[in-house]
Structures are given as C-alpha cells and as structure tokens.
C-alpha cells in the first residue's frame, strides 16, 4: 500500500472512521484536518498557519490526512500517493451527521471541529455532491497520472476495501 494517503468525502461519510482503521492497520501517522484547524471548539487557526502546517506534513514520507478543506485540496493531492474518496449518498451522510450529533451529548469533547448542528451545516451536507463532486472529478483528472484513486460509494465498498487491505 502507498504511504501518503488522503481521505476525502462529505461530512458523515466516514472519513475519520476509515482513517483510524488505516492508521491502526498500517501504522502510518494520522492527521485529522479538523484537529489541526480548530484550536478549541470556538476558534480556528488562521489560513496561512494551517497551510504551513500542511506543507510540512505533506513533505513527510508517510501520512494519512483526513478531511476536505477545499483551499488545501490541491496542496495535499500533489503529494498524495493514493486518494480515497468516500462518495456516499447524501441520505447516508445526513443520517450519520444526526447520529454523531446525538452521540456527542454522551461523549466528552476531544477538541477539533465542534459538532454543532445548524441548518446551514445540514444544507452544506445535503448539497455537498452538487457543490464539490465536479471539483473533485476535475482534480482526479488532473492528478490521475500521479496518484491512485479509490472511490468508495457504500459501506459495503468500504468493507471490501478494508478486507482487501487486511489481506495485503
């Protein structure tokens, strides 16, 4: 398996869950973009600092980076060996976002992006495919000769991918 792995997808698609599995199975350092961007549940670092941190991380030999942040997609994609796109349906993602929100009442916050629920966030998730798929497909076309793309469209696809990973 390649050593620089980018995991992208709609909120609620399972980026962090898959990234944690990859980290545990492969032993590659994992970086969650939300944990880098958010200093606490109320404050983020500035864009320049965020980009500098990502430039440093992407120069490393091994990494798994989970998250979207459109402003840094291309920076990460230029260095990635493999891009895993969790391209799940909007209904699955919305369901998981609500589930995560409800579960957040019973868990201690671990920092990073606050798991708040708002209509604007629900709308963002609902419209993610319309607003982001074209850009991701354009980037796939642009970088397909330099990185491998794995597009997973269901929990079943993801399970098969993880099973295959376990075998190798």
Tell me briefly what this model is:
The protein has 168 residues and is of the alpha/beta class. The chain has helices spanning 15-26, 33-37, 47-59, 73-77, 90-104, 119-126, 128-143, 155-167, and strands at 4-9, 30-32, 38-40, 43-44, 63-66, 82-86, 148-152.
Strand content: 15-25%
What structural class is derived from the secondary structure elements?
Answer: alpha/beta
Number of contiguous helices: 8
Note poorly predicted spans.
none
First CA to last CA: what distance? Answer: 8 Å
Specify the biggest β-sheet.
Answer: 5 strands, parallel
Protein name: Topology modulation protein
Organism: Mammaliicoccus sciuri (Staphylococcus sciuri)
Question: Would you mind describing this structure in some detail?
Answer:
InterPro entries: Cytidylate_Kinase-2 (IPR052922), P-loop_NTPase (IPR027417). This is Topology modulation protein. The protein has eight helices and seven strands; from the N terminus they run βαβαββαβαβαααβα. With 168 residues, it is an alpha/beta fold. It has one domain: 3-Layer(aba) Sandwich (Rossmann fold), CATH 3.40.50.300. The strands form two sheets. Strands 2-5-1-6-7 form a five-stranded parallel β-sheet. The chain has a two-stranded antiparallel sheet with strand order 3-4. α1 packs parallel to α8 (155-167). The model has no long low-confidence stretch (mean pLDDT 90).
